[in-house]
Specification:
Rossmann fold, UDP-N-acetylmuramoyl-L-alanine:D-glutamate ligase, Protein-Tyrosine Phosphatase, Chain A, 3 domains, 15 helices, 22 strands, globular
């Protein structure tokens, strides 16, 4: 745990007592702060109280005596409207921060380095890959943040040889005004979380702040595959960070990119091949070319050699629910991409296979699957679940066969049976990549993914992948 010494003797309100909120409570207490903890949910307050959190109803607290409000990233800061604690803090002139801002203040002047990763899609895989790469090369690195493995204040206290590899959501960036990364990575920007940021421009503006406090000693790794990221690069100020552009569809000048499944580095002029990603199942697909390019650029910025980086690519186990190979039955591959909660993420999965028995649906997001139409010829059949089933069936009509299954259980059974009978000659893949949130049937994408994995591993004759064992 990282004690919040920078808040010693101060009074800090903490709202939202989940993983990061309770971590902040412990950190602040260990650092000598007075803590006032609260949550809107009675069950959350009860759990927090049993864990030793000092509960104070912030609705009736004296905000003139509070020095900071530490807000859970899941609580609205500005849109659709500020949470009542945010309004009270604003009225009293109290700064609103997140646990990640506490981390920034504890890192300052302590010698530890920070790699900060954000983007609409791919940031968890990239964060895990960078952490794996650094650890494999013998560096002392810890991974945390939005990736969900650890709250940032539960990591080891800063030290000169320590590298923090932290995934930042847009919510967390919003709550981290002091964010300053030695290496900052922005992968891509596409429509997501617009209810929390008001507009696409607002969302992109928050993402761009991952570079806001960098200087010439720092490195900015920026994806070049969308207009928003290209615009952000063009607006970085003179004297700012050294920029390394990356791409999943070519090699940018003085950057890193993928061509035909191979990764190239053009930092010194002519592009040279640095890795062949095609045999690496955990890095399958063009989108993972972007993730690998970001990891490579980060590794080089931190002094790793190409051989160590390539070796780490080959033994990277991947992440659960992100193009996770669950197992095979005969010639059929089963893939869990439950983290594909929007059309852009699912596009990456659909682009990775030629003969797909696609399980999709859930609680739909704006635009549905219309943007995926170019991939419909790859779909042997779709098995539709959840609230989106009828709308998705209407979009697929006339271009791909679809069956409304409603439940994941029925979808897996039907897809497995149909794929087993496939005689096309191409590798049949049963792919869960829903292009939807899970909340209509499951409380989180990973619960949905776990359910899929359990159903697949329960099929007669299945051979589990090494990760699924």
């Amino acid at each position: 745990m990282i004690p919040a010494h920078t808040y010693a003797g101060k009074s800090c309100a903490v709202f939202g007592l989940g993983l990061s909120g309770m971590s902040a409570v412990r950190s602040l207490q260990a650092g000598g702060a007075e803590v006032l903890a609260w949550d809107d949910a009675e069950a959350g307050r009860a759990r927090a109280a049993s864990a030793g959190a000092p509960l104070v109803d912030l609705a009736s607290a004296d905000w003139t005596k509070i020095d900071a409000l530490v807000l859970s990233p899941g609580v609205p800061l500005t849109h659709p409207e500020p949470h009542w604690t945010v309004r009270l803090a604003a009225e009293a002139g109290v700064p609103v921060i997140g646990d990640t801002e506490i981390l920034m203040r504890e890192i300052a002047g302590r010698g530890a380095k920070l790699v900060a990763i954000t983007g609409t899609n791919g940031k968890s895989t990239t964060t895990a890959l960078i952490g794996h790469m650094l650890q494999s090369a013998g560096r002392r690195a810890e991974v945390g943040g939005n990736i969900g493995t650890a709250a940032v204040l539960d990591l080891t206290p800063p030290a000169p040889d320590l590298i923090y590899v932290i995934e930042f959501s847009s919510y967390q960036i919003d709550l981290t005004p002091g964010l300053k990364a030695d290496v900052a990575v922005l992968l891509n920007i596409s429509p997501d979380h617009l209810d929390r940021h008001g507009s696409m421009d607002g969302y992109a503006r928050v993402k761009s702040r991952i570079f806001a406090n960098q200087d010439a000693k720092d490195v900015a790794v920026i994806g070049m595959d969308d207009d928003h990221c290209r615009m952000i690069r063009s607006k970085l100020p003179p004297g700012g960070p050294r920029v390394v552009p990356i791409s999943q569809s070519g090699t940018p000048e003085h950057g890193v990119g993928m061509v035909d499944g191979r990764l190239y580095d053009s930092a010194e002029g002519a592009a040279r091949q640095i890795a062949d990603l095609r045999p690496i199942g955990s890095l399958r697909g063009a989108h993972n070319g972007q993730n690998a390019a970001a990891a490579y650029a980060t590794g080089r910025a931190l002094g790793l050699n190409t051989a160590d980086i390539e070796a780490a690519f080959h033994d990277f186990p991947g992440l659960a629910h992100r193009m996770e190979e669950v197992g095979r039955r005969g010639g059929v591959l089963f893939v869990n991409d439950s983290k594909g909660t929007n059309a852009d993420a699912t596009a990456n999965a659909l682009a990775s296979f030629e003969r797909i028995y696609w399980i999709a649906g859930g609680r739909p997001k704006s635009g549905g699957i219309e943007d995926l139409r170019r991939f419909f010829p790859r779909i042997a059949k779709a098995y539709l679940i959840g609230e989106a089933a009828e709308d998705f069936a209407a979009t697929l009509k006339g271009t791909a066969e679809a069956e409304i299954c409603v439940t994941l259980e029925r979808a897996v059974a039907r897809a497995a049976a149909d794929a087993a009978a496939d005689r096309s000659g191409a590798e049949p893949v049963v792919l869960l990549s829903p292009a939807c949130a899970s909340f209509d049937q499951y409380r989180a994408f990973y619960v949905r993914g776990d359910a899929f994995r359990e159903l697949v591993l329960g099929l007669e004759g299945i051979t589990p992948s090494a990760r699924a064992l």
